[in-house]
Amino acid sequence: MKTGILATALWLALAAPARADEADDAPSRQAVRSDLWVGPDTDDTEVRKYALGWDVRHDDLGHWWGVKVERADYSGAGWSESEDRAYLSGAGELGGWLWEGDVGGNGHDLLGRASIHSQDERRKEFFVERDVLETRGGVENGWVQTFAGAAIDLPMGERWSATALAGVQDFGVGDNLRSHLRGTVVYALAPEQGLSLQLRTRYYRNSDPYEADYYSPQWYGQALGVLGWRRHVGGYQWSARAGWGRQRSSDEGWKRARLFEVGLQTPRWKNAWLQIDAGYTDTPVPTSSGIGSYAYRYARLQAVLAF
Description:
Elements: H1 2-22, E1 31-40, E2 46-60, E3 63-76, E4 79-94, E5 97-105, E6 110-117, E7 124-132, H2 136-141, E8 144-155, E9 160-170, E10 177-190, E11 195-206, E12 219-233, E13 236-249, E14 255-265, E15 272-281, E16 296-306
Antiparallel strand pairs: 1-2, 1-16, 2-3, 3-4, 4-5, 5-6, 6-7, 7-8, 8-9, 9-10, 10-11, 11-12, 12-13, 13-14, 14-15, 15-16
């Protein structure tokens, strides 16, 4: 895995400038970007990440490369930790596929994310993510989780479509490997209004459950019915999703599952772009102990200014 990430970093460093040279007819621009993430939960764990980047070359939002620095703050009941990271970042096109990624680290471990996807009707995506396990034990001991997988879109007529995902997750401690399966079926309820009905299903199994201090029953499953809305108004893209369903694990019977998300993307205005996302879920994530009720909230603000 580490060899693959190093190879990706080297490729980004060499390929991105090469692409810039090929686009001689395009104006040479740069950009600054910022990214703020806040994610508290009812287990008293809170994650804050502040990032500032500089695009050495910025053609548009899908074709750029540069560097990024990030500050990550973790805190909980009676503890807090912080670390600084640096990344080589970029996005572009390779053989008709679109890619995007961050490759770097915190001085001790290789961290980042990378994804590449096709642009055909049956969109295929491959991805990998590496980050510190966001629990007290994970932060204090430097455990790094890695999640890798693939997804495919399956069109099924004018109004029906589906997405399937399979992946595997390693938590950087012990021998546990978590196998993921996710599926979504979407019906375009009112296409002209941007309304859709979705059935989202999720299942995972842990090979060695109850390791360390993250939520890891033998298995976990969830099914959600979701009403989605997405509209473009005056160049702004508005979105909202609300879901209700059921969830259970090997340790608990069926109980309620909820989801609520909102988002806003601005049009490109004087070389600036802004995206805001926020959400709530009571689905367990790796920060959860899985005991009693659980809720996770998040907010993210991304901004890009080209010059």
